[in-house]
Amino acid sequence: VNTVLGLLAEAPAAERPRVTPIREQFQGKAVSPAASVHDEQIHALVQQLFFRHESGPVRHVGFSPVEGSTATATLCLEVAKALAAEGRYDVGLIDAHSDAVLLQTHLRIPSAQRADDQWPIAPRLWMVPRQSWLPDARGQRVTDQNLSRLRELTTEFDFSILWCAPVSWLTASIGHACDGLVLVLTANKTRRLVATQIKDQLSKAQVPLLGTVLAERRFPVPQGLYRSL
Amino acid sequence: MEKAQVQWDGLRARQSTASVQVASLRTFAQQLQSESLDQQDLMRTAKAEEDNYLLYLHKREEARIGDALDDRRILNVAIVEPPVAPALPEHSVFLYLLMAFGLALAFSVGIAFTTEYFDPTIRTPHEAFGLLEVPVLAWLPAPEDAAPFISQIGRAKVVVQ
């Protein structure tokens, strides 16, 4: 997977606003084994979730963590980036979170001039702010109209990645507005009982659970030893 | 002659009287002898009873003292032989170190296995799949394990011109 900056270098300047990195430029460091594993996992996720799903085509997916402390914004960006890197699809990265902090703030991406405008952050990759479907940005009042608007927004893209809040009634509602949810488990943190209960609740709410991602996995063997293998 | 006859009669009378007295005394002596045996038996019995009495008295006093010490939580300890520090250890230091190392190793491994067994969290993709029966699409290493990668991706700042 290329980095954001790598993708930005390929963006056609004439069609869409040009995106320029201003800080923390990628210095072309050697990719570590851990980074390679990370890359492979994201690529495998994209392929398995969007292109080889058994129950039919999956195009609009919400990523929801079990633990509130698990940061899924970066994961959503990486998945969206990997999809956009295919070069054939328009991908929307949609802020469907109820957190006070916006997705673009999490990712340190400057907002567009209009709060409800979507804007490209990479070739064929669009950032969709929360205000574009939820005028009340704090997400405390979500109506059916908001969900309908969210559903319309997802249909504007070939694929859309929805950054969701930890599993709640709002997440279940958003799950109905897309093709399903991917549950992000946190290794060594998410309890088995909680995960099972969430799966049951989603099943009762008839929200398709497309799969899980095990984040923050730790290895008992030190990284230096892994690298020496 | 007559005088001698009178003296003879008198002596004969005294003899008979003395014989009676001797017989009486002999009977009394025999009675005394038999009674002295009974007396000795009685004296032995009395002595034995006295000894028993003194023994029981002594025992009772010891028991009373013991009860009093127990009531006051005082142990009745007598130092038979004062302790003396040995000049050389009974076992070698190496043996103690080896035992300590073995015990520490067994304890550590036991703690690790116990913690692992009772850990209620999900740790591996295999566990997640076995528990939820939905595909595990990916597993991502912890940020510090993949710091060189994640720091480049997630924190790149871009601006729209």
Task: Describe, in plain words, how this protein is organized in 3D.
- The complex is a heterodimer of chains A (229) and B (161).
- Chain A has eight helices and eight strands; from the N terminus they run H-E-H-E-H-E-H-E-E-H-E-H-E-H-E-H.
- In chain A, helix 2 crosses helix 3.
- The longest helix of chain A is centred in the N-terminal third of the chain and has 19 residues.
- Chain A has 229 residues and is of the alpha/beta class.
- Chain A has a seven-stranded mixed β-sheet with strand order 4-5-3-6-2-7-8, with helices on both faces.
- Chain B is mostly helical and 161 residues long.
- The chains are: A alpha/beta (229), B mainly alpha (161).
- At the A-B interface, helix 1, strand 1, helix 2, helix 3 and strand 7 of A face helix 3, strand 1, helix 4 and strand 2 of B.
- Strand 1 of chain A pairs antiparallel with strand 2 of chain B, so a sheet runs across the interface.
Number-wise, the strands of chain A total 8
Give the end-to-end Cα distance of chain B, rounded to a whole number of Å: 195 Å
The best one-word shape of chain B is rod-shaped
Structural class of chain B: mainly alpha
Q: Main beta sheet of chain B: strand number and arrangement?
A: none
Cα-to-Cα separation, first versus last residue of chain A? 24 Å
Strand order of the largest sheet of chain A: 4-5-3-6-2-7-8
Largest pleated sheet of chain A:
7 strands, mixed
Order of helices and strands of chain A: HEHEHEHEEHEHEHEH
Helix content of chain B: 55-70%
Most extensive chain contact? Answer: A-B, 66 and 38 residues
Number of DSSP E strands of chain B? 2
Helical residue percent of chain A?
25-40%
Structural class of chain A: alpha/beta
